[in-house]
Amino acid sequence: MNKKKVTFDDIAKYTNFSKTTISRYFNNPDSLTIENQEIIAQALTDLNYQENKLAKAFVNGKSEFVGIIVPNLYLHYYAEMLNQILNTFENFGYKFLIFASKSNAETERRYIQELLSYKIEGMIILSHTIHSKELASYDIPIVTIEREDQYVNSINSDNYMGAVQGTSLLYKNNCDILLHVNSNVSKAVPAYGRIQGFQDTCVKYNINHELIIRDLGHSPQEIHKSMLEIYEYVKHKYPNQKKGLFLANDTHAGSMLNIIFREHGTLPDEYRIIGFDDSPAAGQAILPISTVGQQIDKIAYEAMELLVTLMNERKKRRPQPQTELIHKNITPILMRRETTD
To answer: Which helix (DSSP H) or strand (DSSP E) does residue 194 occupy?
Structure first.
């Protein structure tokens, strides 16, 4: 059966308060006495009132929505990070509007305008397309994750430490040659620490090594093609040598493992593989993949916790301007599995 929609007028008649008083309860409850707040709250229960939160957002500008922009969802890292951010609803009560920008700047700008039109209270940005200076110009609380962050707040993994951990593990596996496969990452991006950490560790211990830096593709098909080409290159350049492969992420590591497994029916002793992220796909691979765990759940929680702090400050009658940006690194954890000794 259809139920009659309860209005402010109905609540006012039920409580013998004015509609202005009812409006104040929703938009500025502290202006009412505790006793009157309790009377109205009980009336809402008695009348089975369902609040129109979208209408409320247009009245007071507090939508309880956060916008999220990710570059894609085919990399396991972004899918799991998004999953963990969504899980914070139970802790913080914010809902999410999500767009995948596909690394297109104009598309991303259009998505941001769409998000702002819904009166979002803040944004979490994982895409790398728009410079942080432009993001800061939107004058809305923003926290970024694993991207260039000169002008915005950020929560990142300690990529350098993670690379040192991963490279050191391959070194302890008595590999003859260590290879790090990555995209052409800007030094301004936190993930560049994976390249630098690999290089520094190899130089420190005088390890024979090679960096393979190239465009690795922007779809599962392109990634597989790149991994296949790299596998053929490595196989022919370093025959009869034990090769330690440090891949930039678990998606690439999984693709490389599948290619090797299809050719050999197993992971031969001449290959050792480690990824980066500790996304669920790494532990569920045909052979569980050793990886550098970014503590994705912790990064997601701390990013949302920081954003909520920034948004709450904006809601104060006299908000204090932020005088110093916050950049926090989360310590990675090495996960040793079956693709290394």
So the answer is: helix 192-204
| Integer Cα distance of 249 and 224 in angstroms | 13
- CA dist 294 and 43 (Å) reads 48
- Per DSSP, 176 falls in state S
Q: Which of 169, 133, 170 is nearest to 152 (CA)?
A: 133
- Give the β-pairing of 65-70 and 122-125: parallel
- How many residues are present in the chain? 341
* Ramachandran area for residue 90 (φ above 0: left; ψ -120 to 50: alpha; else beta): alpha
Task: Provide the sign of the torsion angle of the four alpha carbons 239, 290, 179, 222, taken in this order.
Answer: positive
Only one residue has tokens 């560790």, namely 201
Q: Tell me the pairing of strands 142-145 and 65-70.
A: unpaired
pLDDT digit string (tens) for the chain, length 341 residues: 345 688 888 899 999 999 889 888 877 777 889 899 889 888 888 888 776 555 555 555 566 899 999 999 988 999 999 999 999 999 999 999 999 988 889 999 999 999 998 889 999 999 999 999 999 999 999 999 999 999 999 999 999 999 999 999 999 999 999 999 999 999 999 999 999 999 999 999 999 999 999 999 989 999 999 999 999 999 999 999 999 999 999 999 999 999 999 999 999 999 999 999 999 989 999 999 999 999 999 999 999 999 999 999 988 888 888 999 999 999 999 999 999 99
CA count, 13 A, side-chain hemisphere, 140: 23
Tell me how far apart the alpha carbons of residues 19 and 40 are, in angstroms, rounded to a whole number: 11
Q: Are 75 and 131 in contact (CB under 8 A)?
A: no
Rg (C-alpha) for the chain, rounded Å, is 25
Q: Tokens 């200076």 identify what position?
A: 133
Number of H helices, E strands in the chain: 14, 12
Pairing of strands 177-182, 209-213: parallel
